[in-house]
Amino acid sequence: MELTAQLGTKIIGEAKKLINENIIITNTDAIIIASTDPSRIGDFHEGAKITIENNSITILTKEHQKKLAGIRPGVNLPISIDQNVIGVIGITGDPSEITPFASLMQKMTELLIQESIYVREAEWKSRSLENFFLEWIQLESVSSEFIQRAEVFGITHTAPLRCTLIDIKPKVKNYQLQELINWLELHLTSTIVRWGNNRLLMITKEVARNSKQYLKTKLEKFQTYANSQLSLTIAIGIGPVVKDKVIKPSYQKAEKAIRVARNADDINFFEDLLLEICLDDIDAELKQSLIQQILKPLQPEADLLQTLISYLHHDLHIKKTAANLHIHINTLHYRLKRIEQLTNLNPKETYSITTFYTALYFLDKKTI
After folding, report:
1. What range(s) does the PucR C-terminal helix-turn-helix domain occupy (predicted)?
2. Is the dihedral of CA 289, 294, 297, 300 positive or negative?
3. Which pTM value belongs to this model?
4. Which of 71, 110, 159, 289 sees the fewest Cβ atoms within 10 Å?
5. Could you read off the pLDDT of 10-60 as tens digits, one per residue?
6. CA pair distance 142, 187, nearest whole angstrom
7. Domains along the chain?
8. How many angstroms separate the CA atoms of 166 and 203, rounded?
9. What is residue 351's three-state secondary structure?
10. With contact defined as beta carbons under 8 Å apart, do 277 and 237 qualify?
11. pLDDT confidence of 197, banded at 50, 70, 90?
């Protein structure tokens, strides 16, 4: 473990919250890498050199100041991690006043460094796991060697497996992301990895015939937890089960399932979204062409578009649509007739209904 200037500066910042004395941090070469007095950074500190060599507290007096380079009266303490000295913390002042709390500062410094090591190792593990999953989702077959690598990461799930993608809004903080991961790992037999910004990828093992409903129930509780405890909204796309450890098909379909989510809190199983998946695969130019051809004639009369949306939303039910729009049934019939006149599509016929639905779906996935 190397004590960096960045970490030294962080330690200085935390120490200043507790004491008013000047503080320095040196590396193992006794060079000051951080200080409350920036002018001292880069200086050689002979007192720190002695502290490192002896691996013990060094009391520095005015007499020492006359003999040793770069020092001021105070106390120097070794910073040790796993019984190895990685630097020195020095506190300037009257040794008799400083010594009583010097050991406390030493312990605080070592705890901060231990925390930094833990965070760094956790980040390394997270990146390594993400890289492993990036490779996994592209494999057409899984070798025994790859399975052994999975076990190194603690991934021991046997098939059948399922991929789930989780989108989080608004922008999530690191501690919130970790709490979400902790909840999922506690309640599901799963492996979760951070998957870019505001997204998680989860691999779950199918455990029973009713596992689809079981998974949905758990994920609904997960959404409730995220919303009530962390003020986060969760959308979820779930791929189909794969019989072996080749998860590529499940991942690709989970990606499609979450892409067609119409609401920020949808839970979408790929197998339940075949129509939406097909529509989503249509060329963007063709989508725009359909919107223009079908819906543009309604734009001059804004109430017609809203009427059509409500009519489809209420499954073509005349009374419910009229009540929703706060209009008389005769007015609704007039509007539906007007829609037919402008578009040449009868909103009471199956073909026309399908065409209207498709155009509105392309216009805005959240419309209906």
Report:
1. 304-360
2. negative
3. 0.67
4. 289
5. 999 998 888 889 999 999 999 999 999 999 999 999 999 999 999 999 999
6. 27
7. 5-120 (3.30.450.40), 144-279 (3.30.70.270), 282-363 (1.10.10.2840)
8. 11
9. helix
10. no
11. confident
Instruction: Label residue 114 left, alpha or beta by phi (over 0 means left) and psi (-120 to 50 means alpha).
Output: alpha
Strands 233-242 and 267-269 turn out to be parallel
Between CA 363 and CA 262 the distance in angstroms is 12
Query: Across residues 241-258, what is the average pLDDT?
Result: 92
Crossing angle of helices 329-343 and 302-313, rounded to 10°: 110
Phi, psi at 233, each rounded to 5°? -110, 135
**Is residue 249 classed as helix, strand or coil in its secondary structure?**
helix
pLDDT in tens, 316-329: 999 999 999 999 99
- Residue 116 and residue 7 in contact, taking contact as beta carbons nearer than 8 Å: yes
Q: Comparing C-alpha atoms, which of 103, 11, 105, 88 is closest to residue 43?
A: 88
Share of residues in the chain with pLDDT > 90 (%): 64
Q: How many angstroms separate the most distant Cα atoms in the chain?
A: 103
Question: Exposed (0-12), middle (13-18) or buried (19+): which is 262, by Cβ within 10 Å?
Answer: middle
Span 126-132, mean pLDDT?
92
Question: From the centroid of its chain, how far is CA 43?
Answer: 42
Length of the chain: 368
| Burial class of residue 179 in the structure, from the number of CB atoms within 10 Å of its CB (0-12 exposed, 13-18 middle, 19+ buried) | middle
Cα separation, 129 vs 126, whole angstroms: 5
**Distance from C-alpha of 281 to C-alpha of 86, rounded to nearest angstrom:** 57
pLDDT band per the 50, 70, 90 thresholds, residue 209: low
Task: Return the minimum-mean-pLDDT range out of 44-48, 142-146, 255-259, 278-282.
Answer: 278-282
What are 309's two structure tokens?
A: 């949306």
In this model, does residue 366 exceed pLDDT 50?
Answer: no
pLDDT band at 107 (very low <50, low <70, confident <90, very high): very high
Helix axes 174-187, 211-230, angle to 10 degrees: 150
Region at 117 (left for phi over 0; alpha for psi -120 to 50; beta for the rest):
alpha
The 3-state DSSP composition of the chain as helix, strand, coil percent (nearest 5) reads 55, 15, 30
